[in-house]
Amino acid sequence: MLDVARVSAAESYAIAMQGAPALAADFNHMPYADPDAPKGGRLTWGMLGTFDSLNPLIVRGIALQQIRGYVVESLMARGEDEPFTLYGLLARSIETDDARSYVTFHLDPRARFSDGTPVLAADVLFSWALLRDHGRPNHRQYYSKVAKAEAIGPLTVRFDLEGANDRELPLILGLMPVLPRHAVDVAHFEDTTLAAPLGSGPYRVSAVKPGASVTLTRNPDYWGRDLPVNRGLWNFDEIRFDFYREANGAFEAFRRGLYDFRVETEPLRWHDGYDFPAATSGAVVRDTLKTGLPEPSEFLVFNTRRPVFADPRVRQALLLLFDFEWINRNYFFGLYARSASYFAGSELSAYRTPADAREQELLRPFASHIAPDILDGSYRLPVTDGSGRDRVSLRSALLLLSQAGYDLDDTMLRQRSTRAQLSFEILVTTRDQERIALAYANDLKRAGIAVTVRAVDPVQFDQRRLAFDFDMIPNRWDQSLSPGNEQSFYFGSAAASTEGTRNYMGARDPAIDSMIAALLAARDRAGFVSAVRALDRALMSGVYAIPVFNAGEQWIARWNRIERPAITSLAGYLPESWWQRPEAQTKRLQSK
After folding, report:
1. Strand runs (DSSP E) across 416-494, as ranges?
2. Number of Cβ within a 10 Å radius of residue 4
3. For residue 307, with 0-12 CB atoms within 10 Å meaning exposed, 13-18 middle and 19 or more buried, which class applies?
4. Contact 452, 55 (CB under 8 A)
5. pLDDT tens digits for 189-239?
């Protein structure tokens, strides 16, 4: 536990983006962790796709993302019950000023990499420079904002942030992964590798079967096992990630008990797919969890880099032709709602809400970029009659398409100048995505639009998505209650031309860039919420995507040998807080 008396008045055990940390300096454990959880056993994940790298910090390759957290630690740990608060991990304390013009981290002298080497300020500086110059685009963007970095002692590092005008930056640096300078080959850092990385986290990579599985084994000498942020977490002796190329095969493997839990994202399967004996007998438990975060929202995303989607009137017409009511009733059993917002179901959403005075002031220089009905809150997503043949939406869409230069010629919608038919491809990778895309293609056929639905495996889908090699894809951007620098990675103009970012739509809008800057500069929660809502209005006005549905709950299926705490975090499910029942551990040992 942190020795509060050793922390000077200028230092703090934690930092919150706005306000104060929810937990006192002498907290014993996170509220969503059970400090008495039994240790031991194994947790097996079922992963869709494949991997060819164990380095999730670079663009190349398909990496196992869980290396971060399980193997490689950051300076501080996120409190999953708060919008954005960090507590001490490798850094026992943090220091910054009111303007957040600098940040200083004081490392825990007990911190060790898994080979026993101490974690020093030199390792922090090495990691910052390495990721700034060779890391993923988001790391390069974030860490290049630092004006100066220096070690002011073997266990203290200071970052000068003068001129960044980014109040989130101290927290972003707090989440920076720390790598051992003595064990990283800088010259080949950007190359994919299956070599086990050396980290300071609770686990070490113990086995790799290329493309098939990765096994992590708990480090018995883990330096941070008794820290308050870790008490009740990291309970399994072994974590194994098994990979499956195809979604149906992955579900069958779960039914057979080959892995321990799955996050269900297909309503049809959740509704009627869990009728196998283990599920009906209670051996498989289904948890429905409500989080406190913005609801994950599925979109069909326009790649506006493609000429076919360059005109917003075309995009608006295509939005009108999406029959959510028919799809929700016939495919989703009425389980879903939808919102136009990118922060649905939270105070950050601007949908159906008039802009307050702060928002109006932020958006005033960009008045031509914001639709009046989105600004005043009167905008509503189109509602069809649910027949799959709604004539009102078809007439409205054809009027917009005519204004954009397209005419309906018998059964084909043709561009007036070239006579070419309006056509595009929807790239998908799951069964539900394909069903939605085919239903949508049928809606578009009524308007004379030719759509090809191409189903590819998860690996090819990720490769094409990262390279922006698509016309339209399904996607969701998972949002927190404290959106920040990652919004530039998602929607910023600079990210539009940088492969590997998540600006899949290719948005290049000064209004979006300005609103992201405003939320980063906000000094209180009210101003921050207004800036995020203003960003939401700019995104909705751009018509960059078709809202498909919002997932208001997390659906988790798990074999009952795996247990979880009674308290669910604000973020929802957290496998690092789970454990295996002791009697199940005994059975697994006996079966070996």
Report:
1. 423-428, 450-455, 472-475
2. 11
3. exposed
4. no
5. 999 999 999 999 999 999 999 999 999 999 999 999 999 999 999 999 999
